[in-house]
Design a protein that fits this description.
single chain; FAD/NAD(P)-binding domain; binds flavin-adenine dinucleotide; alpha/beta; binds iron/sulfur cluster; 22% helix; globular; 6-stranded antiparallel beta sheet
Length: 502
């Protein structure tokens, strides 16, 4: 058995774990990061739509099960940097109201155990760490900020600028997307078409490896062990974590330490706690509330491809604009959500869904289409949950929640696009496998009976155990989650007394 030890041990190196490691490095705290994946190679395939989307080169072969026992390929990437290695780098903040209680016709989005004002200084830090570009004063829903964005908003290419004009003529306020890519004098980004969903061959995307974990390891106090899959969290007689056990390339290992942090992503962190059940804790570790794995959320998302046959879309970097006019009020007194451009879709990427359509037709369509993501909030439900079989396999029970709001936002989005000249609109609604925004499976709260973690992501039950990834979200809001995960990781790093043995 291989043995390791560190003061703080982090499981997973994605947005939560990588950012936390950076925060701990600023305090000089000895940290070991255990990551089941390896370092993603920089290679020509990074920017090949075929390799990334058709051959799924950077995704694990692992499948999960749905409620009926059907297999699906989840939206996870087991890599140093986690899902951020391929993410779209759109890094908006949640709005103040997202952290409060929101009432919808079909349910309630619960309040977070801290406010936007508590998180704001860490949003500022996270924007600086992840080199976020943006502008203030365009978006009617933007939350208050103590500092301007570290970098100006990305320029809109002419096709996008023209689309924005057509939206503004309808009284809307199209605004710049907050983006984390390295565009600045001397920056390494070349503004290519293969960014959203692809790894960056130049290391210019602000992912957790490039911006956080890499610099943390270079500082000397943080070590990284790759290929190290943690399988169990083991407690001692006093109810503290004694060690983690797992394997590296088939070789068993154990890791001891002072504090332990799970940052394996919302499904895997929950699965790890549930799989650590024992005679003394038959429902798993840190699960006295019975809520570990429950309240799984993913956002209600739909991709739209809107075609204006009269306009050729020659854009290279498309993801620069969002419309948030319907975020808090869709015109009926209830929130709608956000509508945002995504990276330019190529015909071969459409083929993964439209399998029977000829590639030449899809390419012709892609020449004249613009692609968007319509995103609205889903609600926590104890029936939507991650469980784990005796073989360790993840099962996800999931039914859409709050979907009437999504339908309403979709209808509005299509109407607005039609008025802007888009005659054909095609949609792809996200299913159980498109779960890249998953969160909520170990919700933070004040009350140990109704939450798994305290407001600083520490387990209510196990004093030296934390979960610092998207699992802690008590509600999902309707903005992309990564900057909020990073901000909370920085808050936990700074506001926790890591030196005191609890
Ligand atoms: C294609 C795509 C596009 C996206 N675009 C955006 C976007 O534009 N903006 C945005 O905000 N969000 C985006 N997201 C979502 C964003 O990437 C995630 O919300 C974020 O990365 C989640 O952070 P996390 O720390 O919870 O998990 P992850 O970043 O997934 O990290 C989890 C890590 O834990 C490791 N791990 C898992 N299990 C174990 C184990 N047992 N032992 C050891 N290690 C383990 C994994 O390998 C991984 O490295 C996108 C995601 C995808 C897939
Ligand atoms: S747009 Fe920039 S950050 Fe994105 S993949 Fe291309 S070079 Fe990398």
């Amino acid at each position: 058995m291989i043995s390791h030890s560190a003061h703080v041990v982090i499981v997973g190196s994605g947005m939560g774990g990588g950012t936390l490691a950076w925060g701990l490095a600023q305090r000089g705290i000895e940290t070991l990061v255990l990551e089941r994946g390896g370092i993603l190679p920089r290679e020509p395939e990074n920017w090949s739509a075929r390799a990334v989307f058709v051959e799924r080169r950077y995704k694990p072969s692992e499948t999960w099960l749905d409620d009926d026992g059907n297999e699906f390929h989840p939206g996870v990437h087991y890599l140093v940097g986690g899902n951020t290695k391929v993410y779209g780098a759109s890094l908006p903040r949640l709005r103040e109201r997202d952290l409060g209680q929101t009432h919808y016709p079909s349910g309630t989005s619960p309040a977070w155990p801290f406010t936007y004002d508590d998180l704001e200084p860490y949003y500022t830090q996270a924007e600086s760490l992840y080199r976020v570009h943006g502008s203030v004063g365009e978006d009617p829903t933007e939350p208050w900020r103590s500092r301007p964005y570290p970098y100006p908003a990305l320029a809109h290419e002419p096709y996008v600028a023209e689309t924005m004009l057509r939206l503004a003529e309808q009284g809307l306020h199209p605004s710049s997307t907050a983006m984390g890519i390295d565009v600045r004098p001397g920056g390494t980004c070349v503004r290519c078409q293969t960014c959203d969903g692809f790894p960056c061959r130049l290391g210019a995307k602000s992912d957790a490896e490039t911006c956080a974990l890499g610099p943390a390891v270079a500082g000397g106090s943080v070590r990284l062990l790759t290929g190290a899959r943690v399988r169990r969290v083991e407690l001692d007689g006093s109810g503290r974590v004694a060690r983690l056990v797992g394997d590296i390339e088939g070789e068993p290992f154990e890791v001891t330490g002072g504090m332990f942090v799970l940052s394996a992503g919302a499904a895997n962190s929950a699965a790890l706690l549930l799989a650590s059940r024992s005679e003394a804790r038959p429902t798993g570790v840190a699960n006295s509330s019975g809520l570990v794995g429950r309240n799984y959320m993913v956002h209600n998302n739909t991709h739209l491809a809107a075609v204006d046959p009269r306009r050729r879309n020659d854009v290279v970097f498309q993801k620069t604009m969002a419309v948030n006019d319907f975020y808090h009020d869709l015109g009926d007194g209830h929130p709608g959500g956000t509508i945002q451009l995504i990276g330019k879709v190529q015909g071969s990427m459409m083929k993964t869904q439209a399998t029977r359509a000829p590639l030449s037709l899809l390419n012709r369509m892609a020449d004249r289409s613009v692609e968007l993501l319509v995103m609205s909030e889903d609600l926590p439900s104890v029936h939507n949950r991650v469980t784990v079989g005796s073989d360790g396999r993840i099962q996800v029970s999931w039914r859409r929640t709050n979907y009437d709001r999504h339908e309403a936002l979709l209808k509005t989005a299509k109407s607005v696009l039609r008025k802007a000249g888009y005659r054909g609109i095609f949609e792809q609604r996200f299913g159980i496998d498109m779960n890249s925004h998953m969160c909520g499976t170990a919700a933070a709260g004040h009350d140990p009976a109704t939450s798994v973690l305290d407001p600083w992501c520490r387990s209510h039950d196990v004093p030296n155990l934390f979960v610092v990834d998207s699992s802690f979200f008590p509600s999902s809001g309707a903005q992309n989650p990564a900057l909020t995960i990073a901000a909370q990781a920085l808050r936990v790093a700074e506001e926790t007394d890591w030196d005191v043995r609890v």
